[in-house]
TrEMBL record, chain A:
It is found in: Nucleus envelope. GO terms for biological process: cellular response to amino acid starvation; positive regulation of TORC1 signaling; protein transport. This is Uncharacterized protein. Its main location: nucleus.
UniProtKB/TrEMBL annotation, chain B:
GO terms for molecular function: structural constituent of nuclear pore. It holds the Pfam family Nucleopor_Nup85. GO terms for biological process: mRNA export from nucleus; positive regulation of DNA-templated transcription; protein import into nucleus. InterPro entries: Nucleoporin_Nup85 (IPR011502). The gene is NUP85. It comes from Platanthera zijinensis. The keyword Metal-binding does not apply. GO terms for cellular component: nuclear membrane; nuclear pore outer ring. Component of the nuclear pore complex (NPC). This is Nuclear pore complex protein Nup85.
Length: 348, 725
């Protein structure tokens, strides 16, 4: 049923596949990163390590691939909040190696998460910080990844006028709209896991060309759930649906949302929570991450990752119960758990 | 159960909420506990799972015991395939079916489109559409046939009652059922006999564990070689009655002729007994059947019209009754023969008890009704009631997918049939054949115009697509997950009006670009389906990959193919700066090929036109060196003046140009530049010197000595030009 594809070395902390699933970037606890390449182009081929290098002195907690039309490049977020971008390049075919493009040194709050937008003309990077702020950068040079311009800096709150306290965020989740194309509006989802409720709920931010600013166009949270810390987010690929499908994981479970454009003229969005899936049931096991992502004991285990398949019909979730759960909607539109993969040795 | 929800009222397709979620244990080989799990839908819908060990645990282990379990193992990545695929169908055969079914499908879609066009133009309808679907269905059935035909002996062994054939697949059985119910309009007229034939072919797969007529006969056949007095064995008579119940007349007659009374040495002593056996054999072989035709060599008498059949049936029944009441039974000394034969007569007379005792599976009991109890055509409603009754009598559960399919079809409940297809024959993606079956089977269901509303109506729940489109999309996704079948996926997606091209775009945009052949294939698909945006995207990824991996020429080629002006302009800018900032010939040579590749049309904003003129000037200057011809030198001067006059020539390049001009200024034969031209050069040098005084201006990258030599050459040339003029 399962086939082994790769063996990862000691001290692995995170990993991430590139756009076609043929390259695997791995972040290590000692601050090094490695890239494993698939041995052949056929499906189910094994991976072998092609390079390993030191990124930073502190542990890499997240590794993210940059969209492929900007080369083979990754972003590494370290535990100390440093963000660095690396690309595979060389002057000739023999001198290709992983090179540092830019390092965003930590001057204040830590970087928690970074994601890259799909619009093809200008690459956009959203960086979420531990103080609840989010910065949007734009790449100035399409050929090199070292020239970034800060486009916006705002907080993940709907009410930008009120004064809030300073939150302490332990994690952040970002998901860009998977729609491609230069004419697409730039939009992304952002949710925090923080001690200030206003920052937590998942909001959809869209760039308004007219005023050149980012606006929250939808809040994917019911009034009674506003305090819920967001653990993971995933925006489903849209192959032609008249609405967007978004999965938001909180400690209560995984909520599936439909979001659609209500009015073209004033660009108003509507959203509806379709279902709350029970998520990863079971007692949360102690995790070794720092800072602890889920340090509380709840009925529901923490959701680690949400991942849609290419049609946006099947959602895979991983969680603290050691399971991978697959969720689908049946022909009547009822969401249900479709299969469970036990990776934790049968422990619930 | 996590995730279980109640179905909404008025649910379209009945899905049971009682079904347990399948649980799969992943054997990843990583020591527990797991620190993190990462997943990725790597290729289309194959799921890759990375299981990571806690890193603190590694250190603790080493400290505690000195040795670590798993050594340097930090995690594993596995690819997971869920769902058990049909073991009867090998991977190669699955691919053969997948490829073989494409052209019938495409042909059918083509016909449908053509008919739709025609019906728009004229009033012709889809009246005979089912015949096209039937043709398509037969093509698929051929593919589902087992590939290895059984070897046939020239001499027929009388002891072979059951021909040993490869076990048919459940897929084929289900396919044939759906063809029978939803496509073949002729078949519906003869449905009872069609079902009898279906049981004859698929009885062997009706149950894996329980006894069926087939398994009973098979067991007897194995015993036949060792049996001395066959008629003494109760299993012989049981097998006979069972075979007769389901209408396997050939097997019954064959078995009867194995009766000991046929042996030459016993003919005389068992004459009456033999006469009775033969009489029953004759009655069996002349059984009237209400059907379209009987395959050559098959026993029974075929009647196509009801009156003829009824007449023959009554006569046949009369003969059975007559034999049953005959006095010969008294003279038959062999008890088992007497009882066995009379049991056969009772079955033929439609005695429910005898029939029920001789059949095992509900389907066997069901078809025996059409043969002996109600041989005239029944309505669907009656057949559905009868099926329910048989299910109760044989206390069969509805666990078998084929059973539920038949009951659903008889109940004229297309929703149940769809649900069954999805549930019993899928919907897990790994089961390629099964999904193929559903995707194609919906074509069969769609042949019945009554079902079109359900199958083709667009549903909000499904994201605005129909049930048919949904299944095609899911199937195409499965095909995309394997490199050997991904090429046929677009055929199915092209027939999905709403979301097909969307999925095709995403799938193509996720193909690796390292392989040139693969890129060309993808681009060909883009061209075929007019996916210009993705075509450009694939080219951009390829261009970027080549550019970054040191194949700059190839990178430019792909950016040009993608029409990526932004990147080409930036490359032009890079060349520009590089050439401008360095005045060595080596640098220029290094970039010359790239300038050629970029062409004159791109980079108007970046001054690529200038680069071309600059290249010409440099080439001309090289000839001046070697040729020493004044004409060539004069041509170089013209190019130089053009360059310096052109507003697109950047200031960055003025100094290198002036540096290059020294050779021309110091031309020995005569001054090549007149006073006006020399003044132009002087003004440029002056402008550059003025710029140096401005804050933040770039410093001239030329040694003072070189600058002085330019000034001197300009001054000398000016004086010579004055003198000449």
């Amino acid at each position: 049923m399962e086939k082994e594809l790769a063996t990862l070395g000691k001290g692995v902390r995170c990993c991430s596949w590139n756009y076609c699933g043929k390259r695997l970037a791995v972040g290590y606890n000692d601050g090094s990163a490695a890239v494993h390449d698939s041995d052949s182009l056929s499906s189910s081929s094994t991976f072998s390590r092609s390079s390993k290098w030191t990124v930073h002195a502190s542990s890499i907690k997240n590794i993210i691939w940059i969209p492929p039309d900007f080369g083979d490049a990754i972003a590494c977020i370290c535990v100390d909040g440093t963000l660095s971008l690396w690309e595979e390049a060389g002057e000739d075919a023999h001198s290709v190696t992983w090179k540092k493009c830019v390092v965003f040194e930590r001057s204040g709050p830590r970087v928690l998460e970074v994601q890259f937008g799909f619009p093809t003309k200008y690459l956009k990077m959203v960086v979420a910080y531990s103080d609840g702020h989010v910065k949007v950068y734009e790449l100035l040079d399409l050929l090199v990844l070292n020239k970034w311009q800060l486009q916006a800096n705002f907080k993940n709150v709907v009410d930008s006028v009120s004064v809030f306290g300073k939150p302490t965020c332990t994690s952040a989740s970002i998901a860009w709209s998977p729609r491609r194309g230069e004419n697409q509006q730039s939009s992304f989802l952002l949710g925090f896991n923080s001690d200030l409720p206003q920052f937590n709920s998942c909001k959809m931010w869209e760039f308004e060309e007219h005023h050149q600013r980012w606006l929250p166009v939808a809040e994917l949270s019911l009034p009674e759930d506003r305090d819920d810390r967001v653990h993971a987010l995933a925006w489903a690929p849209n192959i032609g649906r008249p609405f967007e499908v978004i999965a938001v994981a909180t400690y209560k479970g995984i909520a599936i949302w439909h979001v659609w454009l209500e009015s073209e003229t004033d660009h108003r969005f509507s959203s509806e929570k379709i279902v709350l899936l029970s998520g990863h049931v079971g007692e949360v096991k102690p995790t070794f991450s720092y800072p602890p992502v889920c340090s509380f004991i709840m009925r529901n285990a923490c959701v680690w990752q949400l991942e849609w398949d290419i049609s946006g019909m099947t959602l895979a979730s991983t969680g603290g119960d050691g399971m991978v759960r697959l969720w689908q909607s049946n022909l009547n539109g009822v969401w249900h758990e479709h299969a469970t993969l036990d990776c934790g040795g049968g422990k619930q | 159960m996590p995730g279980r929800l109640m179905e909404p009222d008025g649910a379209l397709i009945p899905f049971s909420t009682e079904v347990d979620v399948p649980l799969y244990n992943i054997q990843h080989g990583v020591k527990l506990p797991i620190f993190r799990i990462f997943v990725s839908w790597s290729r289309s819908n194959l799921l890759q799972v990375a299981c990571i060990r806690p890193f603190e645990d590694d250190f603790n282990n080493e400290e505690d015991t000195g040795t670590s379990d798993g050594g340097d193992l930090g995690g594993k990545v596995v690819e997971v395939k869920l769902g058990a695929s049909d073991p009867q169908i090998s991977e190669a055969q699955r691919r053969r079916i997948a490829y073989g079914s494409v052209s019938p499908f495409a042909f059918l879609q083509g016909r449908k489109n053509a008919l739709a066009m025609m019906s728009r133009m004229s009033s012709s309808s889809f009246g005979d559409w089912w015949q096209h679907v039937l043709e398509y269905s037969r093509s698929i059935l051929e593919l589902l046939e087992n590939t290895n035909p059984p070897s046939r002996s020239v001499i027929e062994d009388p002891r072979i009652v059951l021909k040993l054939v490869n076990k048919p697949t459940g897929l084929k059985a289900a396919w044939q059922l759906m063809e029978m119910f939803y496509v073949d309009k002729h078949s519906l007229t003869w449905l009872p006999e069609q079902l009898v034939d279906w049981v004859a072919e698929y009885d062997c797969i009706l149950s894996e564990t329980e006894v069926t007529v087939h398994s009973k006969l098979f067991k007897l056949q194995e015993k036949l070689v060792n049996l001395q007095v066959i008629e003494d064995d109760p299993e012989y008579w049981e097998a006979l009655s069972s075979a007769l119940t389901v209408g396997w007349l050939d097997a019954v007659v064959k078995l009867l002729r194995l009766h000991g009374s046929y042996q030459l040495n016993q003919m005389d002593s068992r004459e009456t007994e033999n006469g009775l056996v033969e009489a029953v054999a004759v009655l069996v072989s002349t059984m009237p059947r209400l059907r379209h035709d009987l395959p050559a060599g098959k026993l029974g008498q075929c009647y196509k019209t009801k009156p003829d059949f009824i007449k023959a049936w009554e006569k046949w029944r009369g003969q059975i009754t007559k034999l049953d009441c005959s006095a010969f039974w008294v003279h038959c000394g062999h008890r088992q023969t007497r009882e066995g034969l009379r049991n056969l007569l009772q079955i033929m007379l439609g005695n429910m008890n005898n029939i029920s005792n001789a059949s095992f599976h509900w389907m066997e009991l069901f078809v025996s009704h059409f043969l002996y109890i109600k041989p005239l055509t029944m309505s669907f409603e009656e057949m559905h009631r009868l099926a329910q009754k048989c299910l109760q009598l044989k206390s069969s559960s509805l666990s078998n997918g084929l059973t539920r399919l038949i009951v659903g079809a008889l109940g004229e409940n297309i929703e149940v049939v769809i649900a069954e297809c999805s549930k019993s024959f899928g919907p897990w993606y790994g089961m390629k054949c099964i999904l193929l079956m559903i995707t194609h089977a919906l074509e069969l269901l769609a042949a019945d115009s009554n079902q079109n509303e359900i199958l083709f109506s667009e549903r909000y729940n499904l994201g605005g697509i129909s049930i048919v489109e949904l299944h095609r999309i899911v199937y195409a996704q499965v095909l995309f997950s394997h490199s050997l079948t991904s090429q046929i996926a677009p055929t199915y997606l092209a027939s999905c009006p709403k979301q097909g091209l969307g999925l095709l775009e995403i799938s193509l945009s996720r193909q690796p670009v390292q392989n040139y052949t693969l890129i060309l294939k993808d681009l060909e698909i883009c061209r075929l389906y007019e996916l210009d945006k993705i075509c450009s995207f694939v080219k951009k990824i390829t261009g970027m990959h080549q550019w970054k991996h040191g194949r700059k020429g190839s990178g430019i080629y792909w950016f040009q193919k993608a029409g990526d002006e932004s990147r080409l302009n930036q490359i032009a800018q890079q060349l520009f700066e590089c050439i401008g900032s360095s005045n060595t010939n080596e640098t220029f040579k290094q970039w010359e090929g790239l300038i050629e590749l970029l062409g004159p049309d791109v980079g108007t904003a970046g001054g690529l036109g200038f680069l071309h003129r600059y290249r010409d000037f440099k080439n001309s200057l090289r000839h001046v060196q070697y040729g020493r011809a004044t004409d060539t030198a004069r041509h170089s001067v013209e190019l130089l003046i053009q360059l310096l006059k052109s507003p697109s020539t950047p200031q960055l390049l003025w100094l290198p140009l002036l540096h290059d001009s020294v050779k021309l200024l110091n031309w020995k034969d005569r001054p090549l530049l007149n006073a006006a031209e020399t003044n132009l050069l002087l003004s440029k040098l002056q402008e550059l010197s003025m710029l140096q005084l401005l804050p933040d201006s770039p410093q001239l990258d030329l040694p003072p000595l070189e600058l002085a030599s330019i000034r001197l050459a300009l001054a000398t040339n000016l004086s010579r030009a004055f003198l000449e003029e």
